[in-house]
């Protein structure tokens, strides 16, 4: 892939240069940390949306996260690339990874209960597997990983309670919107590999800055945020979510993509369920699901199957990059 013009920040290690490098416990610790960061999304969003409308909430948390990362980058003596190519990648990634799917799910939750939403949104690993297996083939999509994705989805359904899924099918259009959002998430984990030449903190800062600024005009026009009277709890939730869930979470997401690949990174989606349930019990006083133990067992089995290392990841990254470069040049890839 062509080098970035200007003075780009140091790039993270390229897995394509060491395709047989073994995964270490630190890599899986990053995956768990990512799950913890994004698990807080569920209770914090519920607290924030109590007195802050959705577009304002998403824009505010994105801008807070971007400001936090930009300060850290300044301390580290790094800066975001100013070239158009870099910002085009940031914009495309943020659009399919956050802006569009978040707005779609937020709208759909007006018509779909929380429990079915969690299950529908947990299909991301399955869609990522299908896209990887049927289209990109940038890393091994084994039957074991597919089994892990199915087990994780089953565990998610058991944790929230199978009886709570009786409403599925009540609003097909809204449920389809959630599924389309999960497909967008899956595509983001795959095409996010285009950004592995940048430092993860740079990618996270640039993406969040774009996402916050692109939604700001809509928030100002539609929701008039200057007229709002948010509660202290909502403001604290917005700031906490911006720094913890958005800034640190997105940075860890790109680190995991570089170190672990698409399918393994998606396994954190299932780890978020039991962690999110625990946070909801702790922060919101919700009750512990009766089937938590069985669901947790299924989730852990699914995550274990999805995180089994597979050969060929580095070579797959190289193939994916070569295809993207060929398509950009207007040629037809053969593989």
Q: Tell me the count of domains.
A: 1
Query: What percentage of residues falls in helices of 4 or more residues?
Result: over 70%
Poorly predicted runs of 5 or more residues? 1-21, 311-317, 331-335
User: How many beta strands in the DSSP annotation?
Assistant: 0
Amino-to-carboxy terminus distance: 18 Å
Measured by DSSP, the beta-strand proportion falls in under 5%
> Shape, please?
globular
The biggest sheet, with number of strands, parallel, antiparallel or mixed sense and barrel status, is:
none
Order of helices and strands: HHHHHHHHHHHHHH
Written overview of the protein:
This protein is mainly alpha-helical. It has one domain (24-327). Helix content is 70%, strand content 0%. It contains 14 helices and no strands. α12 packs antiparallel against α13 (292-306). The longest helix is centred in the last third of the chain and has 29 residues, at 232-260. The chain starts with 24 loop residues before the first helix and ends in a 6-residue tail after the last helix. Mean pLDDT is 78; it is low at 1-21, 311-317 and 331-335. Residues 1-21 are annotated as: Disordered. Its main location: membrane. One of its GO terms (cellular component) is membrane. It holds the Pfam family EamA. It is found in: Membrane.
């Amino acid at each position: 892939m062509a080098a970035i013009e200007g003075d780009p920040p140091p790039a993270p290690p390229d897995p394509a240069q060491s395709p047989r490098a073994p995964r270490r416990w630190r890599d899986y610790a990053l995956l768990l940390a990512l799950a913890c960061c994004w698990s807080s999304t569920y209770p914090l969003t519920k607290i924030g949306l109590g007195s802050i409308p959705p577009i304002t909430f998403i824009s505010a948390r994105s801008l807070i996260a971007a400001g936090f990362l930009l300060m850290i980058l300044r301390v580290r003596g790094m800066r975001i690339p100013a070239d158009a190519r870099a910002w085009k990648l940031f914009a495309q990634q943020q659009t399919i990874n956050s802006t569009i799917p978040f707005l779609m799910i937020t709208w759909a939750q007006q018509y779909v209960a929380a429990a079915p939403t969690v299950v529908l949104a947990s299909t991301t690993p399955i869609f990522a597997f299908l896209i990887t297996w049927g289209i990109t083939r940038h890393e091994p999509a084994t039957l074991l990983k597919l089994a892990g994705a199915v087990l994780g989805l089953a565990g998610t359904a058991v944790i929230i309670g199978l009886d709570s899924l009786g409403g599925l099918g009540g609003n097909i259009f809204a449920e389809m919107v959630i599924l389309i959002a999960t497909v967008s998430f899956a595509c983001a984990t795959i095409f996010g590999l285009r950004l592995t030449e940048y430092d993860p903190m740079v990618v996270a800062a640039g993406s969040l800055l774009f996402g916050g600024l692109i939604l700001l005009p809509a928030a100002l026009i539609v929701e008039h945020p200057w007229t709002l009277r948010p509660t202290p709890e909502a403001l604290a939730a917005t700031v906490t979510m911006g720094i913890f869930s958005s800034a640190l979470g997105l940075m860890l997401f790109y680190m995991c993509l570089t170190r672990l690949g698409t399918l393994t990174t998606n396994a954190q989606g299932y780890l978020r369920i039991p962690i999110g349930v625990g946070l909801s019990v702790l922060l919101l006083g919700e009750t512990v699901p009766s089937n938590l133990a069985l669901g947790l067992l299924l989730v852990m089995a699914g995550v274990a199957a999805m995180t089994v290392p597979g050969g060929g990841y580095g070579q797959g990254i190289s193939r994916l990059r070569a295809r993207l470069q060929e398509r950009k040049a207007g040629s037809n890839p053969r593989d």
